[in-house]
Amino acid sequence: MRAQESRISVALGDDLGYYPDEVWDLGLDHLDMFTEEVIDALSVIPWAEGNDAPSHSSVTARTGQHNWGASGSFSEIVMQVSLGTAGGVGAAAITEAIKATYQKLKRRAQGDSWRSMPSAEDAARLARSRIYRHYDVAVEKLTVVRSTVDAEAQRYDFEFSHEDGRRFGATVGALAGTPSCTRVWVDGAEPMPRPAPEPTDPGN
User: Fold this and answer.
1) Crossing angle of helices 35-42/92-107, nearest 10°?
2) Which residues contact 152 (CB under 8 A, 6 or more apart)?
3) pLDDT digits over 179-196, tens only?
4) Which of 89, 110, 166, 171 is most buried, taking the most CB atoms under 10 A from its CB?
């Protein structure tokens, strides 16, 4: 399916069973690629270090339809990559592979889900929503402690504190000319395991 709205995420961490250290998120409109083609495009990222074997990774995808007065289709693709021996958070080769892949995907789309640089208020809201999505943190418990804007690069950088002592960060406009691309991360806490999925009901 070629979706009208696509959201692609690449999450990086030491262990796929834990919340990621950082996540690159991209929203695109009318991406001229089938879901399987997007997954193929992402497949170069675990190989970015040039090793004989790729970094441990997993990919999940879901597609669907929504109807809020006008019907539309969406896809959501999440790749998780274990940094393991990649040298820690922000491993250069993997980060560059993410950027290059996202730029290629952007060229196959009609535009970003955000077509122009958002206001500071909208950017902060987008940052909070991405942190909530990837770390299950209630947005009302995130307090902005630092905020900067680079108008020339069309980029916002935020740092948030959480009541449990963790610090979260977000860059909105993580790729030049792509205001809907975000990078979010967590710092100041031990790795936290993801909740186990609810068991399926064999009767359904």
Assistant:
1) 150
2) none
3) 999 999 998 766 777 765
4) 171
Q: Which residue has the tokens 């080769």?
A: 93
Q: Give the type of residue at 177.
A: G
Q: What is the SS3 string spanning the chain? A: CCCCEEEEEEEEECCCCECCCEEEEEEEECCCCCHHHHHHHHCCHHHCCCCCCCCCEEEEEEEEEEECCCEEEEEEEEEEEECCCCCCCCCHHHHHHHHHHHHHHHHCCCEECCCCCCCHHHHHHHHHHHHHHHHCCCHHHEEEEEEEEECCCCEEEEEEEECCCCEEEEEECCECCECCCEEEEEECCCCCECCCCCCCCCCC
